[in-house]
Protein: Aldose 1-epimerase
Amino acid sequence: MSKIYLQLFCFIVVAGAVLVNANDEQIGVYEIKKGDFSIKLSNFGARIMSMFLPDKNGNVADVVLGYDTIHEYMNETKRFGPIVGRVANRIGGAQFTLNGITYKLDANEGNINTIHGGSRGFSQRVWKMEKVVKDGPTPSIIFTYHSADGDEGFPGTVIATVTYAQTAPYKLTITMEAKALNKATPISLAHHSYINLGGHNSGDILSDEVQIFATKYTPMDAKFIPTGEIVPVQGTAYDFLKPQTIKSQMSKLPKGIKGFDINYDMDNVGYNTIKPVAVLRNKNSGRVMKLSSNAPGMQFYTGNSINVKGKGGYQYKDFAALALETLGFPDAVNHPNFPSQIVYPGDVYRHVMEFEFSTLENNKRVDTISSKHEF
Structure:
């Protein structure tokens, strides 16, 4: 099968291993690259398949979990690297009521709840590779997806767009946009990469240091559905306002809770301001990741149940990576006190994530970020 290589200065797009699925849709693999920072993507789920970064010694490694082939992504359930939606995270009882109409959704979690938009949500769809931007300081790839009225039970037609752009030598900006064309509908997209700054095959992330700039979180019931409360993190295992190792805070979790899978209130209602939400540090590699976003919430998940064979046949065990998913609050459609996810025709949903990578040796600015969101 032919491959097409397009190179312009430091920007490379690779369209290779093009497949055709049962619906006669083309699936491609693409790459954007600046120096030793490269990201491989696919229009299947608009996902990141790999992300190569240097460590403190200049050694380059892939820091996201995934698989070697597109076929493996088609049959997987862990959701390595895609855009999830139409509504990310969980909707309790797989239903909600909007404008007097109750909508029944795909109950793809325990036949009770909806998670990440349903079993055929955005992560399992073929997106259109819409545009390649070759010029200027921000090479990028844009994917679009047309979600029909009734898609997994959600009302109205939605056009979703995601842009992956290298906006600085070691900075990736992900911009997720969506328009409701004919009906009001909930929209909350999220990017779902599992990250291990030591390298995808380096073991667990329990010794990684995490800082989360949130003073409140949303407690959940036994089915991982928010109770509707928004409570302070102070005095709980969920307090990462100061840098803490994951294992040190995990030891404070209530008995029976294996790891972290919790939504934080980022105090950012309305998607109006992009600000730092978390910093992740891996001392062995020296890699540091600062995440900024404009979303009202962030799900912190420590890979509590991974246990799957990944790239190169490496066995990913539980806690092999973590996810920091900025998004709307889980089950917001059933909690009027949560920030609304309803998008009306004519409005534009816009969710931005900025991943900025560095190493400990040249990282004084990131290391001194405070809980007051100061740069």
In short: The chain has three helices and 30 strands.
